[in-house]
Amino acid sequence: MSPGIPDRRGLWVAVGAFVIWGLMPLYWHLLREVPSLQIVLHRAIWCAVLVASWLTLRHGRGWLREVLARPRLAAMLAASGVLIAANWGLYVWAVNAGHVVEASLGYFINPLLNVLIGVLFLRERLSAAQWISVALAACGVLWLTTRYGDFPWIALCLAGSFGLYGVIRKFAAIEAVRGLGVENMFVLGPALAWLAWIELGGDGGFFSLRWGGWTDLLLVMGGALTAIPLIFFAYAVRRVPLSVVGVLQYIGPTLQLLLGVLFFGEYFGPDRAIGFGFIWIGLAVFATDGVLAARRRVVAQQA
Length: 303
Known about the structure:
Elements: H1 8-30, H2 36-59, H3 63-68, H4 71-96, H5 100-122, H6 128-147, H7 153-171, H8 176-200, H9 213-237, H10 242-248, H11 251-263, H12 270-302
Helix pairs in contact: 1-9, 1-11, 2-4, 2-8, 2-9, 4-7, 4-8, 5-6, 5-7, 5-11, 5-12, 6-12, 10-12
């Protein structure tokens, strides 16, 4: 296969991952009776169980010990585990608290924030088009802050936590699914202890008649819903050019935004439309520049 040409199966797997992420608000909405903290704790626990079981079946029981024998890598994955758990927690809370639109804004901003992180911390250089895209996104956030009246802290915290997570995973030399498994093992112990404390205190409801068996099943399956798109994504990025993945990733926040407005009935008036418009124009500039740069590299390789 020529460089820059996506594998068809990888392309559809990537689309599947982003569609699952985009439709997640519907799933968390089914669990709206469960406190957001408990949803996140169950999500961490069952994701850890699922991924660890899969890795053990595939690589044997030594997969975790091999990583722990490298203290620097283990510390990086512990930090990335905390960041992704915080990201999960804020996202689930935002969905069930009626902030789906603002949560989608965070994932629209994230690619541009990654560019800015690359400049500030990794000494990367931006093209003129990338500087324009970052400036447009900044204008959109500033507009939303001054005209809509509320600082978009949910969006910025979601983008910031996921952006820092991406930086750590960029330098953590480990395969994607194994890295996910190790991250979750670091989170598993605190999550189990916290959830046990809640259950023993009488504020939980797992395996009881408080929420019902259907809710218990949904909580368990939330772990699979966390792991499956990440595994899909890890499969796809090895077979699809990153420039294509960069464009496809906007499927997720676009679906979230549509759900927020059309299904959850959240406000999306002119002030929000203008702010989002600045960000979307910035994303269009960013995506177009990325695709054109990828095409130039392909032409140069074929010359």
